[in-house]
Design goal:
Elements: H1 7-14, H2 21-31, H3 33-48, E1 53-56, H4 63-74, H5 76-86, E2 88-93, E3 97-102, H6 109-114, H7 117-122
């Protein structure tokens, strides 16, 4: 399981109750602390900068942390919850490069370049092949 959901919250969902974003994001924060730290960091730097985005490109210290990033950014629900919480658009390359774009930059030239197949290929290297 990718998230550690408190029993009380799981019981509520099983009864058909809706989970709000704040509750969901708190589960993500507690379950995926490394992913939370990285997304929080790039979102904070993006909010404080004049640039269109900020990114984090340091490989995780272990496969456990890499797995957290993959789970957080591969899940539409988790990724969307993080984006709404931090007010950014997340972009992801190479199983560890996370970028937080200002919403006004989404669709622009810099964003399109970052998410392009060309950028993905340009950021490949033999040591990242199995990540």
């Amino acid at each position: 399981m990718s998230l550690d959901v408190p029993t009380a919250l799981l019981d509520r969902v099983e009864r058909g109750e809706v989970v709000n974003d704040a509750e969901f994001v708190d589960v993500v924060r507690q379950s995926l602390p490394y992913a939370w730290m990285i997304v929080s960091e790039v979102a904070s730097r993006s909010a404080a900068s004049d640039g269109e985005f900020e990114d984090h490109a340091v490989p995780p210290p272990s496969e456990k942390e890499r797995g957290q990033l993959l789970r957080a950014l591969a899940s539409d629900a988790i990724r969307g919850g993080l984006e709404r919480h931090f007010g950014v658009k997340l972009a992801f390359q190479n199983c560890h490069r996370v970028a937080a774009f200002k919403l006004a930059a989404v669709g622009g030239e810099t964003y399109q370049r970052f998410i392009s197949p060309t950028a993905q290929i340009a950021n490949q290297s033999p040591e990242l092949r199995d990540c």
